[in-house]
Design goal:
The chain is α+β, with helices and mostly antiparallel strands. The chain is 32% helix and 24% strand. This is DUF4922 domain-containing protein.
Length: 340
């Protein structure tokens, strides 16, 4: 199956798909402003986008207290396709890459970002603003060597936004094409949890980078914070390398990442994983629980397209899901110890 876009028509198609261009600098509109305008336009001109945001109007949420922490459950039937996505290698190889430029829907347009990415409106949003940042070239999904892009996006969008990454084996619905997501800051419970001194403890200081580990949040989370992008990138890359070595992997470990600005600092939240989906996802009939944990779920917003799962999710089920898909704390601690 041809995945990439190699033709003389590429520049023409690029122009057709470009709503606006962002190259950085202080002149012109901010990236966030350009993206808001893009979404407003796409709701008018692209029916699938408009329908996706209409689903949000009927979205229902409720909070679940899990003793030491809380999560928000969202019933969103518009996320059906994403939640149930078949990400097996053979399935991915047998379908056109829906993030490649020549496979985008006819009406879809984006913001050309620093000549390497196209920022698109996600037609299956979880939040009132939900963007996908897709690489213009068809590269596999990986954060190795790309964390600087994640941090640059966080800086360009500013403190009102959170930039997200799903690993190819733990949440990315397009594991064959490099992409990130951007959503409004403050919608995931973990973003509030990190401010509690009883939630994250300082584990190490590494070249000006503060490394914190989560306590009593039901899943393993490592927080990295620094004023220097270079230092933060170096420590993250070291963490990823040591984690791969600890798991005896020659490929990227299963992780989800959230990045955002905090004043003059940049912060990364890393969710080490051992599984993509819990066993309950694969059960038959009424025993099935249709929650497919990706970075948003690991951040504390559990999305399900089915009313029955929305109603029956409780503290026990939530804790079981996190316990099953999150990497063991002992392994994470060993990785931290090796870094220090």
């Amino acid at each position: 199956m041809k995945k990439t876009m190699e033709s003389a028509d590429t520049p023409v198609l690029m122009n057709q798909k470009t709503h606006a261009v962002f190259e950085g600098g202080e002149h012109g509109k901010s990236l966030a402003e350009l993206c808001r305008e893009l979404l407003s336009d796409q709701k008018k001109t692209w029916p699938a986008c408009r329908q996706g945001y209409e689903f949000l109007r009927s979205m229902v949420v409720r909070d679940i207290s899990c003793s030491e922490f809380s999560v928000r459950v969202q019933h969103n039937s518009g996320r059906m396709k994403s939640t149930l996505a078949d990400v097996r290698k053979e399935a991915v190889n047998d379908r056109p890459c829906f993030l490649c430029l020549d496979h985008l829907p006819e009406k879809q347009k984006g913001i050309r970002y620093r000549n390497e990415y196209l920022i698109l409106c996600n037609p299956m949003p979880v939040f009132p603003f939900h963007f996908t940042v897709s690489c213009l070239d068809h590269h596999p999904q990986t954060v190795r060597g790309k964390i600087d892009t994640l941090l640059q996006l966080a800086a360009d969008f500013g403190s009102d936004w959170t930039v997200l990454y799903n690993g190819p084996r733990c949440g990315a619905s397009a594991p064959d094409h490099l992409h990130f997501q951007v959503v409004p800051a403050g919608h995931m419970p973990v973003e509030k949890d990190i401010h509690g001194k009883d939630r994250f403890s300082l584990a190490a200081r590494l070249d000006g980078v503060l490394l914190h580990s989560a306590k009593n949040l039901g899943r393993e989370i490592v927080a990295l914070e620094a004023d220097s992008t270079i230092a933060l990138t170096r420590v993250f890359d070291d963490f990823l390398k040591v984690l791969a070595e600890a798991l005896l992997l020659d490929k990227e470990p299963m992780i989800n990442v959230a990045a955002f600005c905090a004043g003059h600092s940049l912060r990364l939240l890393v969710f080490p994983r051992r599984k993509h989906r819990p066993e309950a996802f694969f059960r038959k009939g009424d025993d099935r629980v249709t929650v497919s944990p990706a970075v948003i779920e690991m951040g504390g917003v559990l999305v399900t397209p089915f009313q029955r799962d929305f109603e029956r999710l409780n503290e026990e089920v939530v804790k079981d899901i996190y316990r099953e898909v999150s990497l063991e704390g002992e392994i994470v601690q060993k990785v931290i110890d090796r870094l220090v």
